[in-house]
């Protein structure tokens, strides 16, 4: 395992052995310390025995055990590290928000590679000589492997869920007898019953998850930390079924951890947020990173007064004062999603409100939806959803009528006025356009946050929250609106429907780029069909030029949308895998998966007809929301759904060959390239380019003569036309300074949006 993975290489390892144990729910209880730039506290993980172990017979158990043996023989990491710490265990309390760590954790001060042992009577753990003798004993014990990086793990313990009042109803006829093995089985039975409660009891489930997370510890567990993983075992436990199914991990983040960034906002106030790191959230909390580990979570986050905690939870949290100067914020989700979608932003954000601003959607509501009370409420949807059970909005008649979900906007104080100017007005228009295109919004609410200036992208979408760069605010509504549409599209493609293999980024970014144009066309008022078509053709040409330049200036291996080809989606026996090129530095700045994905979807729409194509997209959303997919899931459904594809000769294999499995510009796209020049908006730009180049030549030939202001009349251009104009002029060998000054005056370039400025 870990010895085969070089952190300096290009691939991102997903270490968690999800085939043996699968996390179903996280409970985080954290303090945000801006002075020390750390987030510290505990996380409780609730597990189910994994599919690999459940499906095997007694012969299969031997197979699984051989994998455990291989793991222990191959890994080279620190000796089992049980630091000497003083963490008081928390007893079960009636109110979740009252939970607080009553002791202060201390990291062990001795060398990381030295061995530690705790008092046997206190922890029930054998001495270091016994528990660190991997050679003789390690291969007998099951190892739970979690994804972890840049974290200080202080303590790992089993949680005594049987001590929580009310959990006895989950144990059936079983009774406590005091025998250790029976107690262990009882605890695991309680967790199993809890994680498998029916969907109409989700609120009760959250209640018991919260209370079980506060239960006392009942024995420390052995652990070791590697470069990319946290490995946990319990002495004498050899199978996943017998391993504790509820564990608590006490830990701290590190200031240099790569999952969050500590910075100041545009008003100079401190803040911290998840910025979309290539390593995802493993430096924020120990977790199972593979997409297959779909889980729910709840989190209580404490911070000083004056700070606002925003998270990807489905509730709009209100702060609760715990003591003078300390407030707690509580969020939860009931829809299982990968741990990578967890998002947090803590800062002195201000909510942007406009008293005179009226939302135009007649059917918007700010009420929370209750679950359907009877089977008849499912009449809105012919088919039962195919995903694991959760309170699904696609089965909720009220949610299905909600064109605009409740939304809020947050920003640093100095940017509030800029947000009022365009952003507040655009959100309901873009949400309504998305609903008109794809139907039911997968998530019940939306926060939009203008993040600090060190944010390296224009936007990032997570469940219930979108981060936007300050760069989208100036220069009119165009860039702000298109980027907002792109991030809103991720609610369906990237979040509600996720890629089963992270190397297939195009499933998220290609769809969002394609739908960005569809949404924005509908969000703009009073545009004719020809105007919409013209804008989209112009955008296609700009993207074509960007793709052409990227293909010419990047490594071929990074241009392939399905780099693992036939192996896409495959996992090792334990569930571990790698994200190919996931750590390659230049890949972060590439847009090939956006652009080639967009052109593939655009080509399909042109071949099959946009009306039929969009109807198929809606059908795909209804069928696959709440699930993970591969490219062929979409392509098979699309081509089976539209008989016209038989005439066009389209097959999944030909699409793989032409679009997904090869580098460079796809052949079908090469044949289409010249057609965009016939677009009227493009022809206008071409005419303006000719004027500017001729003027440039005249000035260079007669530099002593002044150019009269009325010699040439230049046309006003749309933002995307300006981008094309400037790109075209940059291809000229020389532009004299007077032309640059004239360009600035003619188009007021300093007042244009970020893409024009760039």
UniProtKB/TrEMBL annotation:
Composition bias, Polar residues: 111-127
InterPro entries in alphabetical order: Aminopeptidase_N-like_N_sf, AOPep, ARM-type_fold, M1_LTA-4_hydro/amino_C_sf, Peptidase_M1_dom, Peptidase_M4/M1_CTD_sf
GO cellular component: nucleolus
Domain Peptidase M1 membrane alanine aminopeptidase: 441-659
Keyword Hydrolase appears in the UniProt entry: yes
Any GO molecular function: metalloaminopeptidase activity
A Pfam family this chain is assigned to: Peptidase_M1
SUPFAM superfamilies, sorted: ARM repeat, Leukotriene A4 hydrolase N-terminal domain, Metalloproteases ('zincins'), catalytic domain
Region (Disordered): 101-130
Keyword Aminoacyl-tRNA synthetase appears in the UniProt entry: no
Source superkingdom: Eukaryota
Key words, A-Z: Aminopeptidase, Hydrolase, Protease
Listed PANTHER family: AMINOPEPTIDASE O
Protein name in the entry: AMPO Aminopeptidase
Protein's gene: Aopep
């Amino acid at each position: 395992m870990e010895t085969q993975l070089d952190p300096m290489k290009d691939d991102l390892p997903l270490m968690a052995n999800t085939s043996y144990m699968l996390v179903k729910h996280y409970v985080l209880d954290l303090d945000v310390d801006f002075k020390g730039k750390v987030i510290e506290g505990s996380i409780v993980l609730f597990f189910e025995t994994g599919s690999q172990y459940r499906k095997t017979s007694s012969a299969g158990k031997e197979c699984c055990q051989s994998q455990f043996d291989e793991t222990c023989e191959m890994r080279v990491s620190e000796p089992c590290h049980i630091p000497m710490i003083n963490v008081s265990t928390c007893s079960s309390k009636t109110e979740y928000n009252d939970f607080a760590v009553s002791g202060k954790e201390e990291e062990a001060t001795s060398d990381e590679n030295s061995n530690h042992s705790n008092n046997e009577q206190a922890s029930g753990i054998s001495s270091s000589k016994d528990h660190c003798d991997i050679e003789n004993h390690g291969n007998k014990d099951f190892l739970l492997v979690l994804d972890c990086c840049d974290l200080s793990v202080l303590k790992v313990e089993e949680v005594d869920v049987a001590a929580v009042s009310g959990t006895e109803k989950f144990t059936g006829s079983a009774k406590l007898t005091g025998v250790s093995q029976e107690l262990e089985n009882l605890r695991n039975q309680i967790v199993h019953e809890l994680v498998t409660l029916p969907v109409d009891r989700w609120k009760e489930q959250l209640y018991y998850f919260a209370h079980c997370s506060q239960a006392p510890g009942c024995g420390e567990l052995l652990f070791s930390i590697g470069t990319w993983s946290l490995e946990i075992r319990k002495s004498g436990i050899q199978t996943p079924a017998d391993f504790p199914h509820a564990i608590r991990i006490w830990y701290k983040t590190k200031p240099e951890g790569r999952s969050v960034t500590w910075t100041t906002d545009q008003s100079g106030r401190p803040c911290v947020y998840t910025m979309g790191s290539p390593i995802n959230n493993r430096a924020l909390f120990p977790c199972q990173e593979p997409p297959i580990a779909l889980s729910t979570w709840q989190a209580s986050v404490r911070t000083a007064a004056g700070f606002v905690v925003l998270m990807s939870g489905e509730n709009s949290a209100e702060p609760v004062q715990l003591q003078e100067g300390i407030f707690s914020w509580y969020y939860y989700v009931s829809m299982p999603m990968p741990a990578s979608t967890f998002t947090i932003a803590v800062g002195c954000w201000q909510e942007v409100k406009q008293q005179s601003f009226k939302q135009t959607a007649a059917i918007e509501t700010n009420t929370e939806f209750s679950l359907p009370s009877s089977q008849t409420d499912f009449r809105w949807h012919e088919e039962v959803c195919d995903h694991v059970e959760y309170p699904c909005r696609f089965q909720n008649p009220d949610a299905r009528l909600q064109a605009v979900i409740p939304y809020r906007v947050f920003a640093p104080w100095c940017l509030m006025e800029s947000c009022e100017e365009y952003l507040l007005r655009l959100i309901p228009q873009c949400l309504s356009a998305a609903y008109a295109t794809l139907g039911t919004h997968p998530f019940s609410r939306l926060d939009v946050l203008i993040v600090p200036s060190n944010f390296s992208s224009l936007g990032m979408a997570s469940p219930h929250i979108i981060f936007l760069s300050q760069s989208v605010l100036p220069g009119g509504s165009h860039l702000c609106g298109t980027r907002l549409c792109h991030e809103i599209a991720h609610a369906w493609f990237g979040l509600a429907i996720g890629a089963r293999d992270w190397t297939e980024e195009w499933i998220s970014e290609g769809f969002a780029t394609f739908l960005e144009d569809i949404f924005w066309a509908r969000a703009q008022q009073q545009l004719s069909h020809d105007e919409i078509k013209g804008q989209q053709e112009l955008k296609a040409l700009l993207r074509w030029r960007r793709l052409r330049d990227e293909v010419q200036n990047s490594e071929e291996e990074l241009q392939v949308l399905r780099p693992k080809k036939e192996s896409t989606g495959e996992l090792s026996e334990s569930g571990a895998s790698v994200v190919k090129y996931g750590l390659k530095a230049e890949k972060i700045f590439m847009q090939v998966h956006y652009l080639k994905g967009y052109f593939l979807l655009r080509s399909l729409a042109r071949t099959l007809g946009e009306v039929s194509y969009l109807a198929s997209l809606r059908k795909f959303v209804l069928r696959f929301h709440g699930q993970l997919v591969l490219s062929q899931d979409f392509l098979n459904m699309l081509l089976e759904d539209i008989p016209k594809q038989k005439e066009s000769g389209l097959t999944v294999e030909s699409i793989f060959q032409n679009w997904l499995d090869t580098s460079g510009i796809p052949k079908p796209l090469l044949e289409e390239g010249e057609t965009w020049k016939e677009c009227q908006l493009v022809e206008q730009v071409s005419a303006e380019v000719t004027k500017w180049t001729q003027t440039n030549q005249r000035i260079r030939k007669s530099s002593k003569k002044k150019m009269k202001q009325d010699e040439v009349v230049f046309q006003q251009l749309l933002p995307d036309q300006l981008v094309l104009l400037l790109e075209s002029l940059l291809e000229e060998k020389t532009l004299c300074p007077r032309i640059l000054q004239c360009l600035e005056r003619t188009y007021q370039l300093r007042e244009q949006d970020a893409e024009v400025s760039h």
